[in-house]
Amino acid sequence: MAETRDRPVTPSSREELATLVASHDRVLVEFHTEGCGKCAAMEPVLSGVARSTEAVVATMNPRDDPELIDEYDVRSVPKLLLFVDGDLATTREDGVLSVEEVRAFVADGD
Q: Which Gene3D superfamilies match (predicted)?
């Protein structure tokens, strides 16, 4: 999994996600599914957040590792999860958000 601050990274398993979360102070994860229009609309938003915050941004399809669905209570997508210092700080399931709204979520999510 290549890591860059210019665009979201894409962990493919719970183990990769756990390693990412443990390796950084602040990680924003978007759970999405294939064919989700709202999820697709979030792609440029998340790229903007990746470029403009100190948080590492990741996108992941929880269906690739179905235990994630129960572990993080995924009932709708897109679902944002903010991890701070290795712990889940907060989540959000509001559909399409602006770059400013997501940056505020990342900044205020302690």
A: Glutaredoxin (3.40.30.10)
